[in-house]
Design brief:
Helices cover 39% and strands 15% of the residues. It has 20 helices and 17 strands. The strands form 3 sheets. It has a 6-stranded antiparallel β-sheet with strand order 2-3-1-9-8-10, covered by helices on one side. It has a 6-stranded antiparallel β-sheet with strand order 4-5-6-7-11-12. A 5-stranded parallel β-sheet has the order 15-14-13-16-17, with helices on both faces. The radius of gyration is 24 Å and the shape is globular. The two termini are 24 Å apart.
Length: 582
């Protein structure tokens, strides 16, 4: 399903909205390149529920539903006060007395909510809430975050009145007293001193228990398969794989250590069909339409448009072929080694204005200062890896990966079994050294895997580089003449100058440039490919010339920053339109 909306009237008051209004907002939230399925709508005891673009399934009961997936859903999943389930989901429950909202352990699907004197509104969509509020009050706190690192920040929304529910939380609204209570389980990040084999067995058992509890009809779901570890583990642990459809995004299937070739071998080993997806051509639609489609699908929560320059053709294809959803491999098992807090910032892309040499303080532009809320700040004694885990699990998953899921779930459902509570709790006990390069996770996947190689660093760089070349992304599309013209037109408008300071807009307009060179991402992958493939005869001095870093300090790409400002202005315009639609 793409979105859920719940509107509850206070006490015994009549709900001012009807099922017809569900259809109206469904049409507004549906991307322009698909025909939406008929929304599910219910009005029970003055609680109006809408589920948009979903398949008929067991995840609705009167004015109760969930987005995502519950592991072993009990018959009373829709009862207020019943046990908090495991899985990756956003859960909405209601009855005559109460409304209840529940997030999974990492809030992998964001729930937004607001309480007024007359209404309680909760949704997976900020736009839907503004639509039913019939007003929009911009929150300027996200602007600094969007401009500096391409996110809305820690829990901020476009509207100052709308809040997000924290990970592992349960919100209960008493309809008679109109009071809200929220309970949140505090995360415990504490490694346990155990032998490596014992850690491996605990994590492996948690993953096996998760997949044993997962009920999926494989004919209705698709698995994106690569040459790496995450999707391979999912394929191996799925208890029912027969008729599971797979696809892989790769330049070709001939490079024997490349993603396409390995994915094809894995699918053949398990007797599954696999489709090679070539998003080689940019969308035939004007770039302005692609930009707008991205904002409709993801509501501008991040700046990660680069994966959708095909105009969402891949996701449209899945929707049109009646795919229920995709099983993805988001996980929290560690990453590259980090030796400082700066490494964490660089690795996760959570930069502040102060991290850039070519940016003044945000106050210069009339913007708010940036700071981490108390639960995300490093504590005394925290290692860089521990802080990485906090930022990744309590910021990146609920506010970045969740936003990326929103883009896809506008077309099909998305679930992430490796983010189950069982797995997360086991992962939080893993010592730092077993998280570097995902050592423990990699050892489990390798142990369970059939004798099929994983992609090498050379082939991975080959795939990434030539996939970008094939997709026409020698220059990031925001830096093409067409992209710069769209951004300039939006920023140099009366609407933009009412929203952002002249100082900021003039800074951006002066700095944007049409670029006719390779994008930074392609260059990085190309350098990695050359470095990994370079023969021993290449001297260290030659390598130092090829890969010399000109500055230890970072400069923000002004084109990227201007696109982020474009998101702010365009989303403001879109939300104003939503607020006046009724």
């Amino acid at each position: 399903m793409s979105n859920v909306i719940l509107v509850c009237a206070r006490g015994d008051n009549k709900n001012p909205y009807s099922i017809d209004d569900i259809t109206k907002i469904s049409d507004r939230l549906t991307p322009d390149n698909i025909r939406p399925r008929e929304p599910y709508a219910a009005n029970e005891k003055e609680v109006l529920l809408g589920v948009f673009n979903g398949h008929k399934s067991d995840n609705v009961f009167k004015a109760n539903t969930y987005a995502g997936n519950l592991l072993e859903p009990s018959e009373d999943w829709h009862h207020i006060g019943s046990a908090k389930p495991d899985g990756s989901y956003a859960l909405f429950r209601s009855d005559a007395d109460s409304v209840e909202l529940v997030t999974d352990i990492l809030a992998s699907r964001t729930i937004w909510y607001i309480k007024t004197n007359a209404l309680f509104i909760a949704s997976t969509s900020q736009r839907a809430i503004v639509f039913f509020l019939r007003s929009f009050q911009p929150d300027k706190r996200p602007y600094s975050w969007m401009l500096a690192n391409g996110t809305l920040g820690p829990g901020f929304s476009w509207d100052k009145r709308i809040q997000s529910l924290l990970p592992d939380s349960c919100l209960t609204l008493c309809r008679s007293s109109w009071d809200i209570t929220i309970s949140t389980e505090s995360p415990v990040f504490k490694s346990v001193d155990l032998p490596v084999e014992e850690h491996r067995e605990i994590l492996k058992q948690a993953m096996e228990d998760t997949f044993s509890a997962m009920e999926l009809n494989p004919a209705e779901w698709v698995l994106p398969l690569s040459g790496g570890y995450d999707s391979r583990l999912i394929l191996m642990l799925l208890k029912n794989k027969k008729n599971m459809r797979c696809f892989t995004i790769a330049p070709d299937q001939t490079h024997k250590k490349g993603t396409g070739y390995i994915a094809k071998k894995l699918a053949k080993f398990y007797d599954l069909e696999i489709e090679l997806v070539r998003r080689g051509q940019l969308s035939k639609d004007p770039l302005s339409k692609v930009f707008n489609r991205y904002l409709v699908a993801g509501e501008g929560r991040t700046d990660g448009i680069s994966g959708y320059y095909d105009g969402f053709d891949l996701w449209k294809s899945l929707h049109d072929n009646n795919c229920h959803g995709v099983v993805r491999g988001d996980e929290i098992f560690g990453w590259k080694p980090v030796s400082s807090f700066k490494d964490v910032v660089d690795l996760l892309g959570v930069d502040f204005f102060s991290d850039y040499e070519n940016l003044p303080a945000p106050e210069t532009f009339g913007l708010d200062k940036m700071s981490w809320p108390p639960h995300l700040k490093p504590n005394d004694g925290d290692t860089p890896r521990l802080w990485y885990n906090k930022i990744y699990q309590l910021f990146r998953v609920p506010y970045v990966l969740s936003a990326r899921t929103d883009c896809k779930s506008s077309y099909v459902e998305v679930i992430n079994p490796l983010l189950s509570k069982k797995v997360v709790i086991a992962a939080r006990r893993i010592p730092d050294y077993l998280q570097d390069d995902k050592k423990l996770f990699v050892s489990i996947v390798t142990e369970l895997s059939p004798n099929i190689p994983f992609h090498s660093s050379v082939s991975h760089a080959h795939d990434k580089t030539f996939k970008n070349l094939e997709k026409g992304r020698l220059v990031d599309q925001i830096s093409t003449r067409e992209g710069i013209n769209i951004i300039r037109s939006e920023l140099d408008s009366k609407h933009a100058r009412r929203l952002l300071s002249d100082t900021l807009i003039d800074f951006l307009l002066d700095g944007v440039r049409v670029k006719e060179t390779l994008s930074k991402r392609v260059l990085i992958n190309l350098k990695h490919f050359i470095r990994a493939a370079a023969p021993a005869t290449v001297t260290s001095s030659t390598k130092s010339i090829l890969f010399e870093k000109k500055s230890l300090k970072k400069n923000i790409d002004i084109n990227k920053m201007a696109f982020r400002a474009y998101i702010i202005v365009a989303m403001h315009r879109m939300l104003e339109s939503d607020a006046s639609a009724l």
